[in-house]
Write a structure and sequence with these properties.
four-stranded antiparallel sheet; binds zinc ion; alpha+beta; 4 strands; about 70 residues
């Protein structure tokens, strides 16, 4: 219970990585629950993917801290 405060270090590193990242190298399709997305293999930002139209949709977004382990 008294481990490092989750989020503090992660957020700083995350911000540093995101800044200047063009998300050029995306992962393969990944599905969690009923959401399908691809994530940037460089910074981890995600973008939802629409299976019906076979294209990425919406803006990039940061994964929740609890989901981070998913792609590590
Ligand atoms: Zn990126």
């Amino acid at each position: 219970m008294n481990e490092l405060p989750e989020g503090t270090i992660v957020e700083q590193t995350f911000a540093a990585r995101v800044f200047g990242c063009w998300h050029m190298k995306m992962s393969k399709l990944t599905t969690t629950g009923n959401v399908t997305y691809r994530y940037c293999t460089k910074c981890g930002m995600r973008r939802n993917y629409d299976l019906k139209s076979s294209e990425s949709i919406g803006p990039f977004y940061a994964p929740k801290v609890s989901d981070d382990l998913h792609f590590v």
